[in-house]
Design a protein that fits this description.
With about 90 residues, the protein is mostly helical. The chain is about 60% helix and about 0% strand.
Length: about 90
Amino acid sequence: MIENLLFSRFLELQNLLLKAKWEETRETYIQSAFVGWQMGAAGDKTFGSYLSHLGLSDELPQSVESQKKGDNTEVLARMGIVAKKVEKEE
């Protein structure tokens, strides 16, 4: 089934799965961070700044952001496909 997908559709589905997995993991981490925050692990920080310090703010991970911009070299590298650089002829 996956062999019949267009590569662009494959990347869209992969991006969707990455987002869903990140949100699921992030929610678990936020719940754990809340317990730590209540126990005083953050010192005088607010819960929002504590989340930012831990990297759990509303920003998406770098790999998802790079795919949004159309930079798929990281994805290709993980798949074992080496992207060739095209040099402009002058």
